[in-house]
């Protein structure tokens, strides 16, 4: 096996295998024991300016969690943890780090992996774990003093930029093609109701989470130190309406309010306005679905007046519109926006916010409780002072009234929400917004800290203790109970009304910390498949066919990029049209969608020519062609977009 020669170039990157190399044991089998010497070695190499990375055949989420527990995850750059051939992973990793294989060493306990690494990277230095003890004394690893980890931090920035470009390139093309326009409205006297609604009801994109009365809003918009504006947005797919509000303190250079409807999630509107206001001070109250940074979106155009809907709405009487009831998570409001602009009457039951408290009530068990619990018990539950994450509207639903043509039920909450059983009365409540178990005393300080950050003081140590004494956590809903709940729901909705159930993608979000999210999704999806196969007038919108790769997710866990929500809306409309035998424009406004597709095709062609043909011309010194490229592309856009046929 190759050894590091005495005169070898300096090693700048060490790539570690995990099982039986970085640690003892196999993570996916018997578990592992940490190797403290290797943990300290990685830290020491980092302080010498030598990078560390990982190429390991393992489950990414599981390995990441273990490395985080060991306090070493952040010392690795561009970790490649996947069930893929190691030779090509190493080659890609070296390219990402912008290094030569001469300056890289790979450690692995398997000879064939070492040979594979050399096949794809001929000059790489490869070793079995026995070599690890020689590293610190070898001249190739002398490095240089970097106690502040400046080189590691530089590569962490490079890592973030690479991930951002990989995740968002195609979505940005879609956003550019969408022709997004923003209008700021500063005359606010006639819009107090809408401002109040935005401040009081929005949550996912409410950065400041300050709830005001209408009298307080009146004082706010007349404060001479504040610049206040409502935000109106349109794009090729429709008019989003008044979807944002901000109050900017000119003297303090601070945002007092910064809030947006989740209808414009992933359009980049908050980031655009944050940049427009010159990146003011903003105290963000967690959690928010989009992070702000120092960038300026270049796909948004601001106009001063006369903002128009980009296409004429479909003209149908209310009696002609197909009536859909959507029940599920609120991130699908983006999808509902597309449906509403395509001639569908959409009503919705989604998670909501009451006094800064997020309420998630779309679980199947909540619907079954509405059927099975007495009105007296429901009233008692809603009035309880120690049951968190519910209010008087928690059990309200029109699902069983049947006043709609089709029910679209997004079951995501069943996949992820904890369920609690009352110790004496045995009823079950799905509660909370994440996987934090409310009955675990050791978790209470963390939960209270999160709630306090949101300005919530009604839930305190005493109420959580009372809740823990009254309820027991039974975990996620069992698949067999999920199946029984689906049967009960179907039996209590008129047979002639179709139900479209939305399952979960089995692709793991890149930022997910859960080891088992993909396994859970597969298990629940199989149960839903079985139910739909056996149940009349029940249909599946299969997210496995729509969300097939991590790049379709947004930065927020469980949410998708804008193009993916459009694809989901198209799939819903096609299925509704087929079920109801009614003609629906499933292209989401064919006029503007086709126009947007042309715009996107031109952008993609322009990028292609820049990267290939024109670069080749440049090599032959026809530099004038590069100078002409923007004019040629703009002429092409003008000819196509302004053509009367479009």
Protein topology:
Layout (H helix, E strand, L loop, with lengths): L12 E4 L7 E3 L4 E3 L2 H12 L3 E6 L3 H10 L10 E2 L4 H11 L7 E4 L3 H10 L4 E3 L22 H28 L2 E6 L6 H10 L3 E2 L7 H8 L4 E10 L2 E12 L4 E7 L8 H8 L23 E4 L18 E7 L4 H8 L3 E7 L1 E3 L2 E3 L4 H9 L2 H9 L22 E5 L1 H5 L1 E5 L5 E3 L13 H10 L7 H10 E6 L2 H13 L7 E4 L14 H18 L3 E4 L1 H4 L15 H19 L9 H22 L1 H7 L3 H19 L5
Parallel strand pairs: 1-4, 1-6, 4-5, 6-7, 8-13, 14-15, 14-18, 18-22, 22-23
Antiparallel strand pairs: 2-3, 8-10, 9-12, 10-11, 11-12, 16-17, 19-20, 19-21
Helix pairs in contact: 3-4, 5-19, 9-18, 10-15, 15-16, 19-21, 20-21
Which features does this protein show?
646 residues; alpha/beta; Rossmann fold; Aminopeptidase; six-stranded mixed sheet; 21 helices; disordered C terminus
**Structure annotation, total helices:** 21
Secondary structure tally: strands: 23
| Molecular shape | globular
Q: Just give the CATH class of the largest domain.
A: Alpha Beta
Radius of gyration: 28 Å
The CATH architecture category of the largest domain equals: 3-Layer(aba) Sandwich
How far apart lie the N and C ends? 65 Å
- Which percent range describes the beta-strand content? 15-25%
Subunit arrangement of the protein: single chain
What is CATH's topology name of the largest domain? Answer: Rossmann fold
- Give the tally of structural domains: 4
> Spans of 5+ residues with little confidence (pLDDT < 50)?
309-319, 589-594, 610-646
Major β-sheet, in short?
Answer: 6 strands, mixed
CATH superfamily caption of the largest domain = SGNH hydrolase
> What structural category arises from helix and sheet content?
alpha/beta
Relative helix content: 25-40%
Give me the side-by-side strand order of the main sheet: 9-12-11-10-8-13
Average predicted local confidence, pLDDT = 84
InterPro entries: FkbH_domain (IPR010037), HAD-like_sf (IPR036412), HAD_2 (IPR041492), HAD_sf (IPR023214), HAD_SF_ppase_IIIC (IPR010033)
Pfam family, one: HAD_2
Protein name: HAD-IIIC family phosphatase
């Amino acid at each position: 096996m190759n050894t590091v020669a005495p005169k070898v170039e300096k090693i700048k990157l060490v790539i570690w295998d995990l099982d039986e190399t970085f640690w003892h044991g196999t993570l996916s089998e018997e578990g592992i024991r940490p190797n403290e010497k290797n943990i300290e070695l990685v830290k020491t190499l980092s302080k010498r300016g030598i990078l560390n990375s990982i190429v390991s055949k393992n489950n990414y989420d599981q390995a990441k969690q273990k490395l985080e527990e060991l306090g070493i995850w952040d010392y690795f750059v561009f970790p490649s943890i996947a069930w893929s051939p190691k030779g090509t992973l190493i080659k890609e990793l070296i390219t990402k780090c912008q290094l030569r294989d001469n300056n890289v060493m790979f450690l692995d306990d398997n000879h064939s992996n070492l040979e594979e690494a050399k096949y794809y990277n001929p000059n790489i230095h490869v070793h079995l774990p026995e070599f690890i003890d020689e590293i610190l004394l070898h001249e190739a690893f002398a490095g240089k003093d970097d106690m502040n980890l400046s080189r590691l931090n530089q590569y962490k920035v490079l890592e973030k930029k690479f991930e951002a470009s990989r995740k968002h390139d195609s979505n940005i093309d879609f956003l550019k093609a969408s022709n997004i326009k923003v209008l700021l409205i500063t005359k606010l006297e006639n819009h107090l109701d809408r401002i109040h609604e935005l401040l009081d009801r929005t949550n996912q994109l409410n950065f400041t989470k300050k709830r005001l009365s209408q009298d307080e809003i009146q004082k706010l918009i007349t404060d001479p130190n504040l610049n206040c504006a409502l935000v109106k947005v349109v794009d090729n797919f429709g008019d989003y309406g008044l979807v944002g509000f901000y109050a900017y303190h000119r003297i303090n250079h601070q945002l007092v309010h910064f809030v947006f409807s989740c209808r414009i999630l992933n359009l980049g509107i908050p980031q655009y306005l944050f940049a427009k206001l010159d990146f003011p001070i903003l105290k963000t109250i967690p959690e928010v679905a989009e992070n702000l940074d120092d960038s300026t979106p270049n796909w948004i155009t601001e106009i001063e007046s006369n903002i128009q809907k980009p296409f004429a709405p479909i003209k149908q009487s209310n009696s002609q519109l197909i009536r859909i009831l959507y029940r599920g998570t609120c991130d699908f409001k983006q999808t509902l926006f597309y449906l509403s602009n395509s001639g569908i009457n959409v009503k919705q039951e989604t998670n909501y916010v009451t006094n800064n408290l997020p309420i998630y009530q779309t679980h199947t068990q909540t619907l079954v409780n509405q059927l099975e619990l007495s009105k007296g018990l429901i009233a008692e539950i809603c009035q309880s002072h120690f049951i968190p994450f519910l209010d008087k509207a928690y059990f309200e639903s029109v699902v069983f009234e049947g006043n709609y043509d089709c029910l679209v039920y997004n079951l995501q909450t069943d996949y992820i929400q904890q369920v609690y059983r009352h110790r004496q009365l045995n009823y079950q409540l799905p509660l909370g917004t994440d996987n934090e178990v409310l009955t675990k005393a050791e978790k209470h300080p963390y939960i209270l800290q999160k709630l306090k950050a949101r300005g919530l003081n009604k839930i305190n140590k005493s109420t959580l203790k009372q809740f823990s004494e009254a309820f027991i956590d039974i975990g996620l809903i069992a698949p067999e109970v999920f199946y029984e709940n689906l049967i009960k729901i179907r039996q209590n909705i008129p047979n002639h009304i179709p139900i479209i159930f939305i399952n979960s993608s089995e692709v793991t979000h890149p930022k997910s910390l859960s080891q088992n999210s993909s396994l859970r999704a597969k298990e629940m999806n199989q149960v839903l498949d079985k139910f739909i196969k056996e149940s009349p007038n029940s249909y599946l919108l299969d997210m496995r066919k729509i969300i097939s790769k991590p790049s379709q997710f947004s930065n927020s866990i469980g949410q998708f990029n804008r193009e993916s929500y459009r694809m989901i809306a198209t799939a819903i409309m096609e299925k509704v049209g087929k079920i109801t035998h009614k003609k629906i424009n499933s292209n989401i406004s064919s006029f503007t969608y086709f126009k947007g597709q042309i715009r996107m095709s031109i952008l993609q062609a322009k990028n292609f020519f820049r990267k290939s043909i024109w670069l080749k011309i440049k090599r032959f010194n026809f530099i004038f062609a590069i100078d002409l490229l923007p004019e040629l592309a703009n002429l092409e856009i003008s000819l196509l977009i302004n053509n009367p046929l479009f």
